[in-house]
Amino acid sequence: MLSSKSRQSSRHTWTHFELKLLNKEEVVVEKHEMNSILGKHDIAEIRQMRQKDHDNLNKFIGLSIDGDLYLSVWKYCTRGSLKDIILGNTVNMDAFFIFSLIRDICEGLSYIHKSPLQFHGNLKSSTCLITNQIHISADANHFLTQIIGGYITQARGEQLIKGKGVMKTYWLIGPIKS
Questions:
Q1: What does the alpha-carbon distance between residue 47 and residue 69 come to, in Å, rounded to a whole number?
Q2: Where is the Protein kinase domain positioned along the sequence (predicted)?
Q3: What is the number of other CB atoms lying within 10 angstroms of the CB of residue 78?
């Protein structure tokens, strides 16, 4: 986890994110309101997130709880989001490129669905991040929002899952506003 003792320097600032150097690597730091104190279960989930390592899931580096805000630290995806690529017209979107993007998204979702995390919940073009090699990594930040801030949900119904029985399903409305 990133702490006040980690060597870091500010590089670029957006509204909710800052680009920083952490041990000579670029990372993105996001600020979160402290809505609650983290319990043992929350810390276990954060450790579980740190252990996740897949080419199609953006790497969660850690969470700093030293200051007035929680700071989550993520691997920096140099090319931005899929939305940025589509709107910017910076890449030739031929059939092979589109197939590769779809494959990357499916592989990332498959990994998430088979993991204890089980679902993404906020998949859209702005949460599909592109690495320098034009490789999609799903943004896993919504898992952290669930842990430290929570989500507003709305019951959707029940779904029969083959081999697992009936599962309640919910729409994720958005993060709880403080």
A1: 19
A2: 1-178
A3: 11
Separation CA 154–CA 134 (nearest Å): 35
Topology (CATH level 3) of domain 8-175: Transferase(Phosphotransferase); domain 1 (1.10.510)
User: Among 150, 115, 155, 129, which residue's Cα sits nearest to residue 74?
Assistant: 129
Mean pLDDT score of the chain, rounded to an integer? 73
* Predicted pLDDT at 4: 38
Residue with token string 């809505």: 35
Residues 71-100 pLDDT 10s: 888 888 888 888 888 888 777 778 888 888
Q: Is the dihedral of CA 102, 105, 108, 112 positive or negative?
A: negative
Q: Tell me the pLDDT band of 111, cut-offs 50, 70 and 90.
A: confident
Q: Residue 60 is encoded by which pair of tokens?
A: 């969660």
Distance CA 161, CA 165 (A): 5
